[in-house]
Each structure stands twice: as C-alpha cells, then as structure tokens.
Design goal:
It is a single chain. Helices cover 39% and strands 21% of the residues. A seven-stranded mixed sheet has the order 14-16-17-12-11-18-19, sandwiched between helices. Strands 8-7-6-9-10-20 form a six-stranded mixed sheet, sandwiched between helices. It binds nicotinamide-adenine-dinucleotide (NAD). Nicotinamide-adenine-dinucleotide (NAD) binds next to helix 8 and helix 9.
Length: 486
C-alpha cells in the first residue's frame, strides 16, 4: 500500500461540528518523519479559539448533547467505531504518513481506535451507583454524572489511539470535550472529529483545537470553563498542566511515560522472553510510554542471555512506513537530536553498545531514523538507566537475586508498567506484587495494549487511570443523594 496522502490546506479549528478558520489565521507545517518533507498544515489555534471551543462545549452540555440518555451516547460511540472501521484504509495511510510508523503498526492502531469506541459505546449505560444503608427513614443512592467540559491534551506518539482512549470514556459519561492534539502529528484526530460529526454527535460535544502546546495547550489547561483535564505527555508539561488545573480547582489525570523493566529469572521461557523484549522496545520506535526499555537479567544467565539477545536485536531494522519493517523513524529532528545527545552522554559515562539494529537501505536521508540500540555497562544511577529515552534504545542490566531484582526494577522515579518472567509462579507473583507500577505482566508484556485493562502510573509516571471501566469513573462526578422519607 502506498502511503502518499493528499491533504487539503489547514482546515482550521473544529468547533460545533464545523471547521472554522482560527482567529489568527496562522498555520503549522506538518512534516512526514520518514521523509522530512511537508505533507500538510494545521491551524495554529490559540487562546481565542480555545475560548470559542469551551463555550461550544458548554452549550452542547446545556443542549442536545446533555439531553441524550446514556444508551443514546453509547449508540453514537458504537456508530463512530463502525465508521472508523469503514474508513480504516484511509486512516491507516494518514497515521503512517503523519507519524512514520510501519503500516502494520498504523493498522493495529486504527483497529484499536475502533475498539475504543466500541468498548466505551457498550459501557456507556452500564455505569451505575449504589444504594447505601443509612439511618432509619432515609434512602441514600450514588449517581454518576458528567464532570462537565473536559480538556484532553494528547501526544504525537499514538494520535489516533490517544483520541479514542481519552474521548471514549469522556463521551460515554456525557462530558463535552475540547481536544488539543499534538502539533507534531494530529491528522488522524482531525479526521476522527469529522467522522464523529458524521456519526451524529450533536454540535459542540466534540471540539478540536490544533495548535502549539505553549499556546493552545496552555490556554486550554488554564481555561476557567474547563472542569477536568486529561493529559498525556512529558513530566515537565504534566507539572504545568497540573498547576493550571489546581489554580482552577479541577482534577486531572496525568500519564507521563516510564522506564519500564522486564525482569528475567534464569528459569523463564527464554525464547518467549527474547521475542517479547525485542518487540517491547521497537514498537513505535520506542516512543511508547510503556515501552519495555530495561531488561533486567538474573546474573547466572547474563552472558548467554545477552549473546542470544544480541543475535536477535541486531536483526531489527528501521524503515519507511511502506517498507513495513520492525520500526519507523522517530517523530522529529528535535527528538532525534535529543536522543543522540542522551546517548552521547551515556557513552561518555561508560555505557557500551552491545547490539545495533539496522536502518534499511533506501530510506530518505532527510528522514528522522535512529537504529535500535542495546546497551550494557550502564550505571544503576545513570541517566540512561533511570530516564526515558523515548527512542528504540534498550538497557540491559544484571541482578543477583529476587530482592536485588525488585530494588533494580523500582530504582527509577517512574512506575508505569513491568514484566516479570519466571518458571516459578510463586516467585513471579511475589515480584509482581512488589514492583511499584500501575500495570504488571507475568510471563508476558504488553506495551500499551489492552483497551479493557486499567492503565496508568505511580510516582513520576503520573496518576489516575485510563482504559477499562476505571476510566469511566475518572471522568464522572459521583453525587450522593440522601432522601428523607420518614
Ligand atoms: P509534551 O509534553 O511537550 O507534549 C504533549 C502534549 O502537551 C502535546 O499536545 C503538546 O502540544 C502539549 N503541550 C506542550 N506544552 C504544553 C503546555 N505548556 N501546556 C499544555 N499543553 C502543552 O511532549 P513532547 O515534547 O511532545 O515530548 C517530550 C517527551 O515527552 C518525550 O520525549 C517523552 O519522553 C514524553 N512523551 C511521553 C508520552 C507518553 O505517552 N507518556 C507521549 C509523548 C511524549
């Protein structure tokens, strides 16, 4: 399949189910990471556009959108899921061109987008409260109501999936949303907004203001008309968003990435481990919050394991979306430079490359390609051992025993996902319970997978839960109703 896409000029901002020119008229060029070439432009929305979008969302809540039943909201979400399936080929091409990811990855992403809407469409009318025993003569019930207007600030690594992941539960619970997609990649979110209008969402239920983070994003997170903020991105911006939300006394969820370990004991199924370890770091060129970016290996199999991993790792190859290889480029020249600078610092401190994947012949020289890299001799307290690279870079480290494995796994400020591999089920469960993360896999690893599985971080990885039913509760206001009936 060819991923050349023809794009209309910047469409503006999506408010009240219509494209409107942004107030400033400025635009941002969109580059294809695989070629470095301009493939389109988006509007540079800013505070004035955000204000219009928030007002439109509020009108929707007070109007047609707010009057829909939970079942009707669910039907709209399900219909949107079907429209995503109907437009899958188009969306796959857009996502691949916009992010540079291999076509098979882009297709898996689009399947997941449809599944988010299907899942939350089915869930919309299944969230209900309790009755609580209280004093004689009282009936007490809890109700789940919309929070109001919610802001969804999403990143560039999975533009389509992030749109589905954050909007699915927000809309299921009856909130009206204002989305700020990432300026590096957001063509699929813009198209999904159009499909939502086609599905029948009333005007104002879904509004999208593309633009720069420090302009549109900052204005949205600080807008006094916002009742909740869902943010995914860097810890630094997460802190700014949380501060802005605090000033308005509203809640937020933060999903800020990780340095997720896979802990490998000598008695594990090593063939399965090797496959999983390679896949978990090259998926999306390592630009996945839950990328398995550390492999921690019991010392008595260290040499053999590293040799086998080196053999497999060296075969991993980066290419363009059309080549459809193991991974694509990273998102931008800036990210490539940031990664290379971090690796130069690590190598100066003694980190050693044990395996290097390839960049396929024939990739455009202007593309933002970084080969997969496997490092050892990485100090436990070093930047490379503790900080997120957000690129196809895996760190291998040995551990001595179970206690050491847990200490090493927990030895970063992050706490998003972990994998524990062992043939001893009791030990695997012990370790799985001691790692301080929001999601742990035993004898498996799923970077980002599982729409049904509650997902989110501890420590610097953020707080709040997305996905699964938990996301619905995050995006609802619980009201306790106390009725005295005598
Ligand atoms: P970022 O945090 O700058 O951007 C994420 C989103 O926040 C984008 O939509 C952006 O426009 C918006 N934003 C930026 N500044 C803002 C502000 N002041 N107020 C409100 N919104 C703002 O992330 P990035 O620069 O694109 O990437 C930097 C690093 O963040 C990456 O290297 C990676 O470590 C991490 N990251 C993590 C995830 C994840 O899934 N957890 C995703 C993308 C990036």
């Amino acid at each position: 399949m060819n991923v050349t896409v023809k794009l209309p000029p910047a469409k503006g901002v999506f408010i009240d189910n219509k494209w409107q020119p942004s107030q400033s008229g400025r635009t941002i060029a969109m580059l294809a990471p695989a070629t470095g070439q301009v493939i389109g432009a988006i509007a540079a929305g800013e505070a004035a556009d955000v204000d219009l979008a928030v007002k439109a969302a509020r009108r929707a809540l007070d109007g047609a959108w707010g009057r829909l039943t939970a079942t009707e909201r669910g039907r709209l979400l399900s219909r949107l899921g079907r429209l995503v399936e109907d437009h899958a080929d188009e969306l796959v091409k857009l996502e691949a061109a916009d992010t540079g990811k291999p076509m098979k990855q882009a297709r898996a992403d689009v399947v997941a987008v449809a599944r988010y809407f299907e899942y939350y469409g089915g869930a919309a009318d299944k969230v209900h409260g309790d009755t609580i025993p209280f004093l004689d003569g009282y009936l007490v019930t809890t109700l789940y109501e919309p929070l109001g207007v919610t802001a969804q600030i999403i990143p560039w690594n999975y533009p389509g999936q992030m749109f589905g992941r954050t909007l699915g539960p927000a809309l299921a619970m009856g909130n009206a949303v204002v989305v700020k997609p990432a300026e590096e990649a957001c063509l699929v979110p813009l198209r999904l907004a159009e499909l939502a209008a086609e599905a029948g969402f009333p005007a104002g239920a879904i509004n999208v203001v593309p633009g720069l983070g420090e302009e549109a994003g900052a204005a949205l997170s600080a807008h006094p008309g916002i009742d909740f903020v869902s943010f995914t991105g860097s810890p630094e911006v997460g802190a700014l968003v949380q501060t802005a939300a605090a000033r308005n006394h509203v809640g937020c969820t933060l999903e800020l990435g990780g340095k997720s370990p896979q802990v490998v004991f000598a008695d594990a199924d090593l063939d399965a481990v090797l496959t999983s370890v390679c896949a978990a770091i090259v998926q999306n060129a390592g630009q996945t919050c839950s990328a398995g970016s550390r492999v921690l290996v019991e010392r008595r199999i260290w040499d053999r394991f590293l040799a086998d991993l080196t053999t497999r790792f060296s075969k991993l190859t980066a290419g363009t979306p059309e080549m459809d290889l193991d991974l694509g480029p990273v998102i931008s020249a800036g990210q490539k430079k940031r990664i290379e600078a971090m690796l130069a610092r690590a190598e100066a401190a003694g980190a050693e490359v044990v395996a290097r994947g390839a960049i396929a012949d024939g990739v455009p020289a202007e593309g933002f390609f970084v080969p997969p890299l496997l490092y050892r001799n990485v100090g436990r307290d070093s930047e490379l051992a503790r900080d997120e690279v957000f690129g196809p870079v895996l760190v291998a480290m040995p551990f001595d025993d179970e206690a050491d494995a847990v200490a090493l796994a927990n030895g970063t400020d992050y706490g998003l996902v972990a994998g524990v591999w062992s043939g001893d089920g009791a030990r695997a469960i012990r370790v799985a319970r001691k790692v301080r993360v929001g999601q742990v896999f035993v004898n498996g690893y799923g970077a980002g997978g599982g729409i049904e599985l509650p997902f989110g971080g501890m420590k610097k990885s953020g707080h709040g839960r997305e996905k699964g039913f938990e996301a619905l509760y995050e995006l609802a206001a619980m009201k306790t109703m106390v009725v005295k009936h005598g």
